[in-house]
Amino acid sequence: MVPLLNPIRGVDGQDMHEIHVPAGTDIAVSILGANHYKATWGEDADDWKPERWLSPLPESVTGNRHIGGIYSHM
User: Fold this and answer.
1) Reduced to 3 states, what is the DSSP secondary structure of residue 59?
2) What is the H or E stretch that residue 2 is in?
3) Which of 5, 25, 27, 72 is an S-S bond match for 68, by CB 3.0 to 4.6 Å?
4) Exposed, middle or buried, 40 (CB in 10 Å: 0-12/13-18/19+)?
5) What does the alpha-carbon distance between residue 10 and residue 16 come to, in Å, rounded to a whole number?
6) C-alpha to C-alpha distance for 23 and 46, rounded to whole angstroms
7) Contacts (Cβ under 8 Å, ≥6 apart) of 64
């Protein structure tokens, strides 16, 4: 199961908080979308700021346990 940062509504009208991914399924991760989610990275998430990685990361990043928390909603 892959947990979702924010629930989505299924075709049956139920909220889904995770998605079942069968073993052996190929998954593509968008590198272009990574680290742009403002709720995790802050309002300047779209700015090129390599110095972010030279200091301790904020709790919104280190405490994030959802893969969706690093991605923008593209």
Assistant:
1) helix
2) strand 2-9
3) 5
4) buried
5) 6
6) 34
7) 40, 70
- Taking alpha carbons only, the member of 7, 5, 2 closest to residue 22 is 2
> In terms of DSSP H, where are the helices of the chain?
38-41, 59-62
Burial class (CB in 10 A: 0-12, 13-18, 19+), 19: exposed
Residue range 11-63, pLDDT digits in tens: 999 999 988 999 999 988 777 777 777 877 889 888 988 887 777 887 877 77
Residue 66 and residue 60 in contact, taking contact as beta carbons nearer than 8 Å: no
CA dihedral 52, 49, 51, 32 (to 10 degrees): 60
Distance (Å, whole) CA 33 – CA 71:
5
The amino acid at 14? Q
